[in-house]
Amino acid sequence: MGKKIEFHGSDLEKIAAYYQIPKEDIVLFGANVNPLGLSERAKKELTAHLDIITRYPDRNYTSLKETIAGYCKTDSSFVVVGNGSTELISLLIACRSPKKTLILGPTYSEYSRELSFTGGQISYYYLEEADDFRLNLPDLKKKLNSSIDMLILCNPNNPTSSAICTDDLEEILCLCSRHHIFVMIDETYVEFAPQDVSITAMPLIDRYDNLMIIRGVSKFFAAPGLRFGYGITSNKAFHDALIRVQNPWSLNSIGAFLGEILLTDTHYISRTRQLIRTERERMYQELSRIPAYKPYPAYANFQLVRILQKSFSSSDVFEAAIRRNMMIRDCSSFKNLNGQFFRFCHMLPDENDRLIACLTDIASGF
């Protein structure tokens, strides 16, 4: 039997062709993108200012950096903007060129891909299922020593949806500073986190220059095609080095213009947080009532689930869901997750109801 084809969360066209389903009919539970779609304000402003494409963006992105700084409550001189968070991850790794990197896993594969180009050694510190994928901070601290050049964290983490609180992040940064370890924290999903907990490293930027935080608008602002990302570091030498090697006008005029609109759209931000908070709590409770599944506490807009029954696997769940025009993520391709884990993001309530019905049917053997 041939190896089963594996799909990434963004492989919509590939999945649509393979299963012969019109891509417009597929509900994207695997992409982790805000189900509200692009904000109405952003649509109106974009329509009214399409002629902005006839001009080069400001080479220094001064106004955009000031908007980002206001949004993040930091200094605009700390900000770097780029063609999505992917470009900034690539630039950061290329500039640091670490000899040995420790990655908190299981996590996004792009980190190891970019590191593979530098020729350095990659090792992993894996979150444990027995701890519900919560970080064992004392144990991690034992692994941090001067043989490591870089530590990479995704917070909240993909695919576990677990998170590290700000106080624990400071402990990590303090220890890493003593060992001259540079820390990259990918906060792609941080805006989805419950507002009554603090998990962002942004308040620590002023105090630690061995840190860069990377964010973007693909997920929270439902704008993956905009390719707008930004990084924040108080390390001036490193900041300036990034700017020197980055291609000029890396972010296009539309991205620079719309980025300011998105980050100041307080109505959309509030609606998103309310929707995700409600659906995250509801879906966790719904799944907890089905004996075949174990959902884990979630801080992002997606949920990791373990299958407790031996009669079906994550591949079976993917197949059953896609046959009903719903695309979840089979997590078998993530390092250290076997075929009993899947992930889905929180969509609109009626779509979430459809997924719960599907998962219930699978657990009961149809």
The number of E-state strands comes to: 13
Provide the residue-averaged pLDDT.
95
Task: Name the poorly predicted regions.
Answer: none
Numbering strands along the chain, what is their spatial order in the largest sheet?
2-8-7-6-5-3-4
- In which range does the helix fraction lie? 25-40%
Strand content: 15-25%
**Helix/strand structural class:** alpha/beta
Task: Please describe the biggest sheet, giving its number of strands, its sense, and whether it closes into a barrel.
Answer: 7 strands, mixed
Describe this structure in words.
With 366 residues, the protein is an alpha/beta fold. The chain is built from 12 helices and 13 strands. The strands form 3 sheets. Strands 2-8-7-6-5-3-4 form a 7-stranded mixed sheet, sandwiched between helices. A 4-stranded antiparallel sheet has the order 9-10-13-12, with helices on one face. Strand 5, helix 7 and strand 6 form a beta-alpha-beta unit. Helix 4 (84-96) packs parallel to helix 5.
